[in-house]
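re: ur question from earlier - yeah i can do the single chain one, its not a big deal. heres the input i used so u can compare w yours
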Amino acid sequence: MDAFLDAIVHPLQYAFFQKGLLVATLSGALLGLTGVYITLRGMSYIGHGLSHSIFGGFAASQLISAQFFLWGAGVWGVMSALAIITVTRRHRIGADAAIGVVTTASFALGIALLTHFGATGPSFESALFGSILGISQGQIYMLYAVAALTVTLVFVRYRALLFATFDPDVAAVSGVSVLATDIMLMVVLSLNILSTLNVVGVTLVAAMLVIPPVTARMLTDSFAATLVLATVIGALSGAIGMYLSYSAEVPSGTMIVLIGAVAFTLALATAGRRRRLRAARVPAVAVS
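and the output i got, formated as tokens:
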């Protein structure tokens, strides 16, 4: 028991770990919350796509000013999201195809620019795999601001987001502007990805948008409960992943995703057991 408490308390004496733990927990919670709306719409691929698209902006903006690369990457990500919505609505192209074309082209452009001109800001590896210990105070403030914005919009626009997520046609008839809601969600998603990029990296941020909400969805049928559970699972994945990353000397983003995968596996086993128990009760009720 003493060894367990020491493993929890000991890393907290280091300022870099305190900062990393806070950022990892908040990032996991933020991605879990936003991911609910993405996964329930069957758009899990867009998180993967936008993270790659933002990488293109990360590379392109460094050619102009390395100091403001985050602003450039953010604008690039928002423009990519709006381009996906425009292409999907105006042309007979599925959302998955539009996401694939826009975002992979941005990612390819980013690699080409970094390869040819080199990086003047954060390294190529930091953008791809995350560097939580290298996150600046300004980026932490940005994460706080994006988290506050996301929670506020989910609270204020809860009903509109709920309608637009489950039945866009009914939402439109009920007076909800589905297009405005979609644009708002895509902008928030882009900002979420941008603000957490240093934590888990381009290659893994999409996993944290999908794993917590899917895990939560297997544990409850309530939408409100799914939002809460996904946020909690994301936060715990971030916190536990940060601790294990410290002790195992494994990149934090990798460990955070692995903890999320463990939670998903446990939820999957629990959901399977519940289904078997329900199935076993049905014949007994029928006979009685």
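Residues 163 and 171 are 5 Å apart (CA to CA). not sure if urs matches, ping me
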